[in-house]
Write a structure and sequence with these properties.
alpha+beta; five-stranded antiparallel sheet; 7 helices; elongated
């Protein structure tokens, strides 16, 4: 597998798509029930292939990822061949970016000496979707890019 197996809940949500996936392989309900019962390893392989297809489709559509930690915010804009990043760090140990107060503090102190902002660009080595998946797996959250866009605008104005 390139990614991770979908959970039971995710598979239930994608039930119609999974049925179509099986039908494309000429596997009907009766045969699928037989595979699940008598060849569970084959059933898991089918689920894994389906999972990778779903992940690939979803990851292809990801444009922005936000990753928060106590003193850092990593914001990514995902292109086909590279990832741009904004890294915001505070040296103020009382600030916690996981809280609304921490984000409010950042908006009030963005250009203070307590905040460091770095930009970066990383070429995608092999597979863009796998790079995006790794960021998500490590705590990144798919976003619409509001924070990234606001900060880029502020940085370019300042």
């Amino acid at each position: 597998m390139k990614y991770t197996r979908l959970t039971k809940e995710q598979l239930e949500e994608l039930h119609p798509e999974f049925i179509n996936f099986l039908a494309a392989q000429s596997i009907d309900k009766k045969e699928w029930d037989d595979i699940k019962l008598n060849k569970p390893e084959v059933a898991l392989q089918e689920v894994d292939v389906f999972s990778d297809l779903i992940w690939d489709k979803a990851l292809t559509n990801v444009k922005f990822i936000d990753h928060f930690s106590t003193n850092y915010i990593f914001l990514f804009k995902c292109y086909e061949k590279y990832l741009e990043s904004l890294i915001i760090n505070t040296s103020n140990d009382t600030v916690d970016f996981f809280t609304a107060e921490g984000i409010q503090w950042l908006s009030e102190n963005l250009f203070s000496n307590d905040v460091t902002i770095q930009t970066g660009k990383k070429e995608v080595a092999n597979n863009r979707n796998e790079e995006v998946f790794r960021i998500i797996e490590n705590g990144g959250i798919i976003s619409k890019g509001e924070l990234y866009s606001k900060l880029i605008t502020l940085i370019n104005i300042a």
